[in-house]
# Entry
Amino acid sequence: MASSRLIGLLLVAPALLAVGALFVYPLGFSVATAFTTKEGILTLGNFYRAFELYSVDIGFTLVIVGASTLLCGLLAIAIGGYLTLGENPRAVAILKWLYRWPLFIPFVVAAQCMRTFIAKNGLMNNSLVSLGILEPIQTTSLLDWRGIVITFVWKQTPFVALLVAGAMASLDRSTIEAARNLGAGRLRILIEIVTPQVLPTLVVALILSFVTMMSVLSVPIMISGESPTMMTVDMAFRINAYGDYGTANALGVLSYLMTGAVAWIYLRRGIRQGGKP
Amino acid sequence: MKPILKLATAAALALALAPAGANAQRVTLNVITAGDQNMVDYVKDYLGPIFQKSNPNVTISSVGTGPGDAGSQKIAEKIIAQKDRASWDVDVAVIHQKMAGDLVQAGLLAPYTKDIASGKMVTSDNSKMALGAKVEGYVIPMFNSQTAIAYNPALVKNPPKTYADIEAWSKANPKQFGYNGIKGGMSGVSFVVGWVYANAKDANKLANGPYDANEKASWDPALAKLKEFNKTATITPGNAGTLDMLNRGEIAMGPVWVDMFYTWMADGKLPPTMKLSLVGPGMPGQPMYYVIPAKAANMEAAKKFIEIATSPAVQADGIVRKFNWYPGIDAQHVKSQLDDATWNKLFVDVTPQELASKGKSFPIKQYFDDILEAYEKKVVN
# Structure
């Protein structure tokens, strides 16, 4: 008995050590740095500076990531819905093949492409102008916070759609058929029958996307330099320009709190379902 | 340094160098450069082969740490992290001014310039002082670089000569002036510093010290003006972002690095009609420095490497002809190596006289940090 327990401990030890060394220690260290001065004295000065200089960016981070998460959810439902309820097999096949592509493209590459795509005289506007849809004078650059949202949504929607479409495909089709027999349109079936049943999966996918987007530096730094921008850019700037880890970590703690809040929803849901992830 | 440490260092150095001398084994020289990709390319594709011709047993390993002060910060962190080790795995580093001062003061660099021939060919001010910190003996500039205002002559009939001109022009042509703020690269930082210089009581004090913490309050009117100016300007994504937008015709004017401007033009990424104007009272430029960490594992090879890299021939052909930088060592040693046409190409839009009178250095470190933070506080917040 005792030896099997020892073996059990030994088996779990590498994983525990890895989590401890690579996650718990750095997390603790960064939280501690956020509350201390360079000389090691306890302080709230870092948070004061973070709010004084970056309150706009903190708010915008929430707006950008929140709006992106919402749009991802809507688009994913639309894509998943068409894959489940679509009646043209060819269109369904094409959509199924196409929608996953952005999954395999890193954020930094997506940002690089968007830089030239959504610029004032970029590919998108030039195409619209040559199609006669826009006049050259009407074009505007989307290389600001809107560009960040566009890139996030483009990159993250396939991930949410993948999970949502999978959940939709495994639904009991009889509920859909029953609604159809009673004369419900496809949109109504999607909104009233399908979506409520896949809601748990949707929420989990959106929470994971939220956390991912919170941590992205490449997209905001490449699409929009400032005015306003995301907290990750400010954190990088604090370290690179001033070597000021205190304020950077204070901003980090604030973003832990944001992701922590959504993680809490995720965990609560898991507990309610009896410990299922 | 404590005697025991000194002894340990000497022993470690002897150990580190012994195998290289004893059996002429292959040595890997680690060259780490801050800066854009062109810096890594320069070391790997240009300097490396030249150096290996005369040192066949040395392999160059070239690593880039990224643009701006961020790149230098990473190099400094790498050196500081192995401070207590006997020998360090960085042999030659190329860093910015801000970090050079810090590293010299922390005793982490080796004073090497007296040991190599090109050490005597550098007498410029920025080889002695870096943003107010004494670095003489520890650094040789790899090149000098300068920022200036690039403009499209088709859209800008009367190019601005001063910051006041830019302000007026941007008011009349909203969203046609673009710069990258201070978080996306040094060309934007340079524009902001130039703005403060133009409006400060005593720009010389900012560049040379002494530091006075109360000075920053006097910038408030200038920064308030800059906040207004930003409303008429376009904020671009990065140094390359400004050039991209100029190229696509989205902006008509913006601050750029002179070397990047010419390189992009040579690569066909900018129309050859674009022009530069170095506006008064002046815009900053900066060198990048070759340095050797105090406990570099391959000290001798490192010195040889820098000696070749800063020789007049390499400075002429590599720095000036191929990469459009201003030379790092004194110009008279380099000019004689080049034909007039190549040399003059550097000075088409910005004359040597303008460069001398309007090419400023960045402010000393404390003022520099103050300016950046004041910009964050008063302009973008």
Summary: Chain A has a mean pLDDT of 89. DSSP finds eleven helices and no strands in chain A.
